[in-house]
Task: inverse folding
């Protein structure tokens, strides 16, 4: 059996590695000539970690991950601790720990595992076809490829999604802008083993440890889309939006490198019931683009990869039947993740400020039990428990 994988990002490479691990030959095609990861880092929660473990990357992942042992929320103005708790009860409950990692390191780990030379770069797909006994992909340069099935892991702007589902989807603006990047760990800002988040005014500032003595940082601000802002104005924009915030936030703004700070308008898409057409399957952001508010976008793509490979390996009623079973397993799961992230997004970013202020008040009484219980529910819903 042979599969074409469209997309050489996190989802595509995870799928290619998983399929190959199950004895399926793969060809990976990536539109760009050189992959530049979108966003500085990613939090891989235990459900995603278990998928990477299953793919044979247990040790490499631990070299990339930061020691995130505690979680803390702080008041935006006075830097007062609202709640702080250990993540160890979650780790013990689900049997694995979370690992925040730099996206560039994760991308390189996956490329190394699959083989740099095995990815065909500069191949932008323009059309796909599914037949009774196979698939064909046609690329912008005129190249065509044929195989038994095709995995569309070509991201949130997928060129294949509309062919699979039968209509054009509109990305939904989530209502906020995210700035993110990496800085050297500074314990004057926050402990090096803690995920620290300042909240207030419907805004958020976060620090997470990753390997290499670095913090992953992000700033969230509810804003209209399409503002004339970019890296050249990043520091002054953040100083304006976070005027009056606590001293560590001001120090963080002073330490960022605007030239490596990303500014992203956050979107998602309405959950899809259809992920498969014939011998073509959507995977990752192509099938379920979500906001990053529960940290499950990349993890969901890794789950897709494992489920797809296991389904093809363990079912013998044909490829189309196996892909429909993949769809049955994944559609409900990713819908749940997209809607959970959307709900968390709205509360965090002040869509209803009364609800957001009530959340702030609740954080002062939070022992960690409720937050960890919510995380556990999300994590154990993954394919590897």
Result:
């Amino acid at each position: 059996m042979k599969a074409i994988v469209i997309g050489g990002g996190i989802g595509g490479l995870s799928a290619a590695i998983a399929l190959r691990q199950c004895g399926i030959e793969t060809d990976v095609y990536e539109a760009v000539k050189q992959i530049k990861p979108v966003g500085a880092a990613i939090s891989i929660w235990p459900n995603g970690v278990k998928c990477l473990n299953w793919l044979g990357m247990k040790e490499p992942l631990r070299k990339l991950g930061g020691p995130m042992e505690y979680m803390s929320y702080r008041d935006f103005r006075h830097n007062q601790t609202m709640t702080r708790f250990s993540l160890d009860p979650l780790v013990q409950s689900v049997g694995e720990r979370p690992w925040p990692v730099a996206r560039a390191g994760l991308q390189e780990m996956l490329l190394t595992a699959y083989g740099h030379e095995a990815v065909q770069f500069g191949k932008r797909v323009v059309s796909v076809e599914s037949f009774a006994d196979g698939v064909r992909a046609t690329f912008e340069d005129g190249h065509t490829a044929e195989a038994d099935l095709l995995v569309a892991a070509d991201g949130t702007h997928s060129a294949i999604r509309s062919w699979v589902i039968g209509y054009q989807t509109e990305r939904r603006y989530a209502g906020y802008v995210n700035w993110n990047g990496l800085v050297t760990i500074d314990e004057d800002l926050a402990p090096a083993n803690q995920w620290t988040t300042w909240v207030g005014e419907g805004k958020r500032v976060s620090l997470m440890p990753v390997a290499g003595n670095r913090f992953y940082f992000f700033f969230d601000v509810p804003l209209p889309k399409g503002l004339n802002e970019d890296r050249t104005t990043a520091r002054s924009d953040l100083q304006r939006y976070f005027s009056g915030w606590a001293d560590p936030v001001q120090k963080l703004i002073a330490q960022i490198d605007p030239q490596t700070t990303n500014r992203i308008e956050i979107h998602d898409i309405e959950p899809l019931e259809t992920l498969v057409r014939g011998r073509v399957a959507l995977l990752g952001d192509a099938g379920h683009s979500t906001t990053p508010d529960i940290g499950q976008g990349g993890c969901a793509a890794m789950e897709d990869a494992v489920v797809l490979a296991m389904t093809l390996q363990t079912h013998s009623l044909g490829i189309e039947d196996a892909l429909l079973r993949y769809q049955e397993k994944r559609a409900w799961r990713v819908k749940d993740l997209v809607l959970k992230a959307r709900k968390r997004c709205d509360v965090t970013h002040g869509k209803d400020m009364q609800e957001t202020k009530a959340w702030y008040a609740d954080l002062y009484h939070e022992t960690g039990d409720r937050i960890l219980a919510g995380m556990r529910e999300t994590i154990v819903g993954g394919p590897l428990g």
